[in-house]
What does this fold into?
Amino acid sequence: MPASDTQWKQDGSSLIPATPNSRVLSVFTWYTRRLFRKSFHAVRFESESLEVLRNLNDDEFPLLVLMNHSSWWDPLVGVLLANEALPSRSSLAPMDRDQLERFKFMRKLGIFGIDPDDPASETALHRYVCRAFEGMQHPTLWITPQGRFTDVREPMRLRPGAASLASRLDECRVVSIAIEYSFWQDQKPEVFLRAAQCRTEIASTTAWHRAMTAAMQSNASQLAELVISRDPSPFTCIAGGEVARINPLYDLWLRLRGKSGSIRARRSSDSSHQSHRARQQAS
It folds into this structure.
């Protein structure tokens, strides 16, 4: 189990340790799923990479989950995925200690607080995570290595903390989760997710940092292509995903008339695009 407040105060650390509580986590996970269904039309995970993540559920080695950070929703995405794809794993996640002081109940979710502007925070994070992982079954750390809100179109620039930690953990697994929020056919936005494993032959901080940056950049780019295509077939819905509608009252009126209020994307075939391009070139 993570170290107590007293231990960390005695060590002179400014870190606020987590105090995990399975009942609180269970209730919060239920609330999170309800919140996503209320706020988003669907949460879609690229199907093949979802299996990559699920296959890590029973892996005995430590796991680092790297997520890009573009939205307030990102930590809740982590809660959703931990329950959906990695239910057998125990989770920890860092948070700005000033924010954690405001929302202390989040310590019961496995969240601990660090000061990102404190030069000593990286060392404190290493000591805390390594010590906590020793007492956890299938330990997992969820982290946003960019360290700040960043638009998905910006190049990946990572802080060194995650890479430094990976270099200190024996045989750890590292996976990147790309997150993008976009509108398709429904009035509500949708969440799009894709996973990619990150590997390096040399377990140094520099090598891990390079591998993590490349994996997160490539993963985000491949997810962006899927989102742009507006094709739901490569995805599995892990929340929501009902047929898009217009308005509850108008949809009811249409159903009474034997019609459908669903909105579907119109896509042209590849051959249509090619013939259109050929006509443009000919003209």
